Amino acid sequence: MDAYSATATMNYGVLTGSATYFFDEHYELLKVEAWRYKESGEDALPLLCTGTINEHKQVGGLKVPVDMAISWELEEGTFAWYKFQAHDFQFNP
User: Fold this and answer.
1) Which among 60, 70, 56 is positioned nearest to 27, based on CA atoms?
2) How many C-beta atoms lie closer than 10 Å to residue 75's C-beta?
3) pTM score, whole prediction
4) Cα gap 31→69, rounded to integer Å
5) Residue 33 contacts by C-beta under 8 Å, 6 or more apart in sequence?
6) Quick check: 76 and 83 in contact, CB under 8 A?
7) Could you read off the pLDDT of 45-91 as tens digits, one per residue?
8) Across the chain, which distance is largest between two alpha carbons, in Å?
9) What is the bridge-based pairing of β-strands 5-12 and 15-23?
10) Distance CA 17, CA 15 (A)
């Protein structure tokens, strides 16, 4: 999209999904946005879902997100529905 964002699209059969990745000036991931369905009924509409990275950590030579919050953008405002922190990492050689 520009110097600090990129959109990735995956296709699987008839299904297609896209997400946009946003980076800072050091190309560290700041957030990921995608339009996702919060509900599953016939009247369900896609909503903007945002994963915001709050902290990175150097692990085994890689800088990885270790603190993240995932939110829906609702009419009444942002609703953070999932937060996680990663504490232990193992890599497969």
Assistant:
1) 56
2) 5
3) 0.83
4) 9
5) 19, 20, 22, 48, 49, 50, 51
6) no
7) 899 999 999 999 988 888 889 999 999 989 899 999 999 999 888 88
8) 46
9) antiparallel
10) 7
Note the pLDDT tens digit of each residue in 2-15.
899 999 999 999 98
User: What single letter denotes the amino acid at residue 63?
Assistant: K
Q: Which amino acid belongs to residue 73?
A: E
- The tokens describing 74, both together, are 């609702």
Token digits of residue 29: 């991931």
What CA–CA distance (Å, rounded) separates 56 from 51?
A: 14
Tell me how far apart the alpha carbons of residues 57 and 89 are, in angstroms, rounded to a whole number.
11
Neighbours of 34 (CB within 10 A): 17
CA distance 6 to 22: 7
